[in-house]
Structure formats: C-alpha cells, structure tokens
Specification:
Blueprint lengths: L4 E7 L17 H18 L8 E7 L6 H6 L4 E5 L5 H14 L4 E5 L8 H10 L3 E5 L5 E7 L5 H5 L9 H8 L5 E3 L9 H8 L7 H10 L2
Parallel strand pairs: 1-2, 1-4, 2-3, 5-7
Antiparallel strand pairs: 4-6, 5-6
Organism: Limosilactobacillus oris F0423
Protein name: Glycosyltransferase
InterPro entries: Nucleotide-diphossugar_trans (IPR029044), Trfase_1_rSAM/seldom-assoc (IPR018641)
Length: 219
C-alpha cells in the first residue's frame, strides 16, 4: 500500500565530466563522478528504512546518458523517474508535481551531495511541515524543500532566481511570502574542494562510501 508521504532524491547520473564539475581540475572527471556515486549510495543506504516508516522514496535522475545501468543499481524499494525541464527550477517543480500527481499528500525533495543528510532529517522535515519546509545550505541556497499537497509551488520555482548563486534562498523566500515556511538546521553540500575539506572532519558512520572515496584519493 502506498504511503501518504514521499521523499525525492534529485540527482545526476554519475557521469565523468557531467557532475561535480566544480571539483575539476583539483580532481579528475572520473574522481568527481565517483564521488557523486558514493554520496548517492550513502544517502540511499541511510534512507532505506523510510518506506517502512511511512515515507516512500523516489529518485529523480538527470538525462545525460542511457539510465539502464543506473536504474539497475538502485534498491528495489526505490522508485525512479527522469527529470524534465529547461533549468533546475523547472526540473524540481516537475519532479514534485509528478509525485503529487501520484496521490501523495506531502513531498520533500533534496539533492544527493549532502554528507550530513540522514533519514532523521527527512523525518524531521515532515514533522515540522505546515505548508512549506526548507533546509538552508551554507552557500546561500537550500538543500531541502518540501510542501503539502495543494500549495502552489510555481512561484517558488519559476520566479527570477539565479540558480547556483548565493541568493537562491533569499529569492525563494521573497517568492513565497504568503505561505507558512518552517526551517531545518543548515547543512553543507559538496560542490568545491573547500567543501570537501570542511566536511572531511565531520564524517559519521553513515558516510561509509564517502569515507572510502577519501581513503582512495589519499593513496
């Protein structure tokens, strides 16, 4: 039986030269792609029990390549679909709309490059949600966005937002002033070599693949 809550992991298919490009040339395209895959693997392992707790898990994946091998690698408990849209805002909006259209009452979406993210964070997001919930990121954007069914998300994703810039959160909040917005604690995503150095000292047991990546890079 389907649950009423859904969690979407928004990710690129790990592809050399197509993901984590801000880590290049400090790291090679292959190393950056491997990191993307390891971060996603850790996150999927961390949220593996969410369906049993009432939260179905989806992966919305990018379209750089044939997704067959990527889809085969996903756990059986995860449902997946391709992203669609001209920019990241449209893609996130379409991803959430897809899941709402399947009948879910509350939806939360995050990226996949979040070493601090755990299942407890996702559960917390649903627990505090009234209309909209946001998890700010340290770079001025946000790592998590969630909403209840019936909330008009179009202003949130179609406003004049410079995606990837430090003003994303500020611009987003201006676009949704009519809604009740709850906030989670800030977290750091991994985009640059400096980000890697900052999170390196705070890895936990749920960062198994990420820790392995560091070990391999230091050889």
């Amino acid at each position: 039986m389907k649950n009423n809550q859904a969690y979407i992991i928004f990710t690129r298919i790990p592809t050399p030269g197509k993901c984590k490009t801000r880590l290049i040339p400090t790291y090679s395209g292959q190393e950056a792609s491997d990191l993307q895959g390891d971060l996603l693997a850790d996150l999927l392992a961390s949220v593996a029990n969410l369906p049993a707790a009432g939260i179905d898990v989806f992966v919305a994946y990018s379209d750089e390549q044939d997704p067959t091998n990527f889809l085969d690698s996903l756990p059986d408990t995860v449902q997946a679909f391709a992203q669609h849209g001209e920019n990241i805002g449209e893609r996130m909006n379409n991803a959430m709309a897809t899941v709402f259209a399947a009948g879910y009452q509350e939806v939360v979406l995050t990226g996949s490059d979040l070493p601090e993210l755990t299942a407890q964070t996702i559960q917390r997001a649903f627990a505090v949600m009234k209309e909209i919930v946001i998890g700010p990121s340290a770079d001025g954007g946000y790592y998590l966005i969630g909403a209840q069914r019936g909330v008009d998300l179009a202003p949130l994703f179609t406003a004049q937002i410079d995606w990837g810039q430090s003003t994303v959160l500020q611009s987003t909040l201006r676009a949704i002033t009519r809604h009740d917005v709850q906030f989670l604690d800030a977290q750091l995503d991994v985009d640059t070599p400096d980000d890697l150095e900052r999170v390196k000292q705070h890895l936990d047991h749920h960062n198994q693949q990420f820790q392995y990546w560091f070990t391999e890079e230091e050889k």
